[in-house]
Design goal:
Blueprint lengths: L9 E5 L4 H12 L3 E6 L2 H10 L7 E5 L5 H15 L4 E4 L14 H29 L2 E5 L12 H21 L5 E7 L5 H9 L3 H8 L8 H12 L10 E4 L8
Parallel strand pairs: 1-2, 1-4, 2-3, 4-5, 5-6, 6-7
Helix pairs in contact: 1-8, 3-4, 4-5
The protein binds nicotinamide-adenine-dinucleotide.
Nicotinamide-adenine-dinucleotide binds next to helix 1, helix 4 and helix 6.
Pfam family, one: adh_short_C2
Keywords: Oxidoreductase
Family: Belongs to the short-chain dehydrogenases/reductases (SDR) family.
């Protein structure tokens, strides 16, 4: 790991209070960035800061719902005022309630779209002027569920498909203005979100084991380096790419 890779760079990670977002937040910190964590939950971010107090000089925490366009725009503008620039935006906040199409309520469908798709759009729109200024980039959290469909996740599958094509759209529209946009598509990652589904569905863990060529669910720390790679100058010619970090799930026919 290069501890200076993001020295002097400012990175915003949404959904930073838990799971994958917390691991991505920490990885950027360890690679030298000043990191702004955004989450609904103030408590989980404060716990994260306490666990990483040695790096606290590099940490800024903001509480916002990414599905609230005014709130996320205000936080992005305020962060740039405080820290001078925004170099990388990681759109990671997401929810994944289960259910097939016929029994998905309007409320469940809207709640998933509000966070996973609307939130991604609102944060991206607010960040782009700053990223053009800094010649920065965006890394989105997609999922293998947006490449193929996961069983029993109708709204989530649709939302992650949207994340993937929005990533490409931004990549195409903003490359000429110096902004790259890529996504990481993780397979199953052991986070509180997945743990809840493992606890409520007997045999799911074993089924995942059988369907992942590497034979196990990932730790969040195994996925985080894919984010820092895509955000770094090592990926300067990579734009509009969906990097599967999935133990081989999408390689398997
Ligand atoms: P998690 O529930 O552990 O963490 C998600 C975090 O996002 C939480 O801290 C939550 O408070 C925050 N959040 C939720 N809604 C928000 C909102 N409206 N505004 C701001 N913050 C909000 O989940 P996770 O597994 O770490 O998931 C993170 C991302 O990774 C999601 O986009 C998810 O779809 C994606 N993903 C997860 C897996 C997996 O197996 N865990 C696999 C592929 C993709």
């Amino acid at each position: 790991m290069d501890q200076n890779r993001f020295l002097g760079k400012t990175v915003m990670v949404t959904g930073a209070g838990s799971g994958l977002g917390a691991a991505v937040f920490k990885r950027f910190l360890l690679e030298g960035a000043n990191v702004i964590g955004v989450d609904l939950s103030e408590d989980s971010m404060a716990r994260f800061r306490d666990r990483n107090s040695v790096l606290s000089g590099q940490i800024t925490l903001k509480v916002a719902d990414v599905g609230d366009p005014d709130a996320i725009e205000a936080i992005i503008n305020e962060s740039v005022e405080e820290l001078g620039a925004l170099d990388v935006l990681v759109n990671n906040a997401g929810i994944a309630p289960t259910g097939p199409a016929a029994t998905t309520s309007n409320e469940l469908w809207r709640s998933v779209m509000k966070v996973n798709v609307d939130g991604l759009f609102y944060a991206t729109r607010a960040a782009l002027p700053h990223l053009i200024q800094s010649q920065g980039n965006i890394v989105n959290t997609a999922s293998v569920s947006g490449i193929g469909a996961d069983y029993n996740y109708a709204a989530y599958d649709a939302s992650k498909g949207a994340v993937i094509n929005f990533t490409r759209s931004v990549a195409v529209d903003y490359a000429q203005r110096g902004v790259r946009c890529n996504a990481v598509a993780p397979g199953p990652v052991l986070t509180p979100l997945l743990q809840k589904n493992l606890d409520s569905t007997a045999g799911l863990k074993e089924a995942f084991g059988r369907s992942i060529p590497l034979g196990r669910i990932a730790a969040p720390e195994e996925i985080a380096p894919a984010f820092t790679f895509l955000a770094s100058s090592d990926a300067s010619y990579i734009n509009g790419h969906i990097l599967a970090a999935d133990g081989g799930v999408t390689a398997w026919n």
